[in-house]
Amino acid sequence: MFLSFIEDQGQDHPFGRQVKLRLMDLRDRSARDLTPEFFGGQGTINVPSWSPDSRRVAFVSYERHVTSHDH
């Protein structure tokens, strides 16, 4: 499993970008999407946290919040 940025980030691994998680088959190196695009990046999967049976993985998704202040 790996994190894929939607837009090329060069050598950077920033947070706060559109990303998705993908899974690569090591036999033929094909990859498939595990998630739709979401807001994440640095910190989403610093270390993949697989469940003991390897059927699930934990990851972090960020949400954008727009706040307004009344004065």
Q: Extract low-pLDDT stretches.
A: none
Shape: globular
Please state the structural category: mainly beta
Continuous helix count:
0
Strand content: 25-35%
Rounded to an integer, what's the Rg over CA atoms? 15 Å
User: What is the number of independent domains?
Assistant: 1
Major sheet: 4 strands, antiparallel
Order of helices and strands: EEEEEE
Integer average pLDDT: 85
**What is the end-to-end distance?**
47 Å
Secondary structure tally: strands: 6
Can you give the helix content as a percent range? Answer: under 10%
Description:
The chain is an all-beta fold and 71 residues long. The protein has one domain. The chain contains no helices and 6 strands. The strands form 2 sheets. Strands 1, 2, 3 and 4 form a 4-stranded antiparallel beta sheet that branches. Strands 5-6 form a two-stranded antiparallel sheet. It starts with a strand and ends in a 13-residue tail after the last strand.
Key structural traits:
single chain; 71 residues; mainly beta; four-stranded antiparallel sheet; globular
Quick overview of this protein structure:
With 71 residues, the chain is mostly beta strands. The protein has no helices and 6 strands.
